[in-house]
């Protein structure tokens, strides 16, 4: 793969698309979390935890959310959102931005402080829920519910890859802005 200027937004996005296409798209017969069948599967963990790709994800996602004002923190339902939030936190810090990250557990802990949302306090703060790939919108909705319970203001859901399978409509129906960085067409899957 030929690397272009990693500081150019368009170049970072194209490099990310190239890495996802090469290393994270699998063809075959798959059953998605929703129970639906698919002939391809986008496994972003194959690239979101890769040292070459994580910085690109951070750059692309920061560019995606740049126009959302006063965002204090980003994160989402563990596990898919965790490396995305970490990439945004680190690339943001490198740019002088102050995005904290948080993790939303699938269920509140049954010991210790019993928290479901981990990380810096998000009560009263504007936050964005991140997701690696979106299918039904179920994971972001679960994260939104947990964040609202602790007093966060969820201002958007931002996904790396939108599968065009209804997540946008579900999230928007819940009254939350939906943003996506990469679409199936970008990966040659439309």
Automatic annotation (TrEMBL):
Binding, 5-phospho-alpha-D-ribose 1-diphosphate: 105-106, 109, 111, 131-139
| Signal sequence bounds | none
Which parts pass through the membrane?
Answer: none
Q: Which cofactor does it need?
A: Mg(2+)
- Which reaction equation describes what this protein catalyses? orotidine 5'-phosphate + diphosphate = orotate + 5-phospho-alpha-D-ribose 1-diphosphate
Residue span, Phosphoribosyltransferase domain: 88-170
Domain of life according to the entry? Bacteria
The annotated pathway is: Pyrimidine metabolism; UMP biosynthesis via de novo pathway; UMP from orotate: step 1/2
Write down the Gene3D superfamilies for this protein, in alphabetical order.
3.40.50.2020
Claim: Ribonucleoprotein is one of the keywords in the record: no
Q: What is its EC number?
A: 2.4.2.10
Check the record and name the InterPro entries matching this protein. OPRT, Or_phspho_trans_dom, PRTase-like, PRTase_dom
Q: Which UniProt keywords apply?
A: Glycosyltransferase, Magnesium, Pyrimidine biosynthesis, Transferase
Query: What HAMAP family does UniProt report for this protein, alphabetically?
Result: PyrE (MF_01208)
The subunit structure is: Homodimer.
Q: What is this protein called?
A: Orotate phosphoribosyltransferase
Question: Lineage in the entry?
Answer: Bacteria, Bacillati, Actinomycetota, Actinomycetes, Micrococcales
Name the gene for this chain: pyrE
């Amino acid at each position: 793969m030929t690397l272009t200027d990693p500081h150019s937004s368009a170049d970072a996005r194209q490099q990310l698309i190239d890495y996802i296409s090469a290393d994270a798209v699998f063809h075959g017969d798959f059953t998605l979390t929703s129970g639906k069948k698919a002939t391809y599967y986008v496994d972003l963990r194959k690239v979101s935890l890769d040292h070459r790709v994580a910085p690109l994800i951070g750059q692309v996602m920061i560019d995606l959310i740049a126009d959302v004002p006063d965002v204090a923190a980003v994160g989402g339902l563990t596990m898919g959102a965790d490396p995305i939030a970490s990439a945004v936190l680190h690339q943001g810090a490198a740019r002088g931005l102050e995005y904290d990250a948080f993790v939303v557990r699938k269920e509140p802990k049954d010991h210790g402080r019993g928290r479901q949302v981990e990380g810096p306090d998000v009560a009263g703060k504007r936050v964005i829920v991140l997701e690696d790939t979106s299918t039904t919108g179920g994971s972001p909705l679960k994260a939104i519910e947990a964040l609202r319970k602790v007093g966060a203001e969820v201002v958007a859901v931002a996904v790396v890859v939108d599968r065009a399978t209804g997540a946008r409509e579900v999230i928007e129906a819940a009254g939350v802005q939906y943003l996506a960085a990469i679409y199936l067409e970008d990966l040659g899957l439309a």
